[in-house]
Amino acid sequence: MEDIAETSLRITAGLLLLSPFVQCPLTYFFLKQHMGAAGPETPDVEALRLEIAELKQKYEAVLEENKELKAKLAQLEPHTDEKRPE
């Protein structure tokens, strides 16, 4: 049996879902997910999760490449601390 706080939360969430001020579908999805009303994830959601994982991997690879290129550039650039001949 649900306690009073959980019941109150469910009622509040239900009212939020019905509110005309809730314009964002993500709000609806978030509330459904966290209220336990969401069913199994659709293939679209799974595809988006996979795409996010791939993009994170690509991002990490680009960060690593950037780090390596900065190190190479630092070796090739003349040091700015040295005095230049006039």
Automatic annotation (TrEMBL):
Coiled-coil spans in chain: 45-72
Keywords: Coiled coil, Nucleus
Top-rank taxon, per record: Eukaryota
Keyword Cytoplasm found: no
UniProt KW Coiled coil keyword: yes
Subcellular location, principal: nucleus
Listed GO MF terms: transcription coactivator activity
Entry's localization field: Nucleus
Any one Gene Ontology cellular component term annotated for this protein: nucleus
InterPro entries referenced in this protein's UniProt entry, alphabetically: AMY1
Family affiliation: Belongs to the AMY1 family.
Name of the protein in question: c-Myc-binding protein
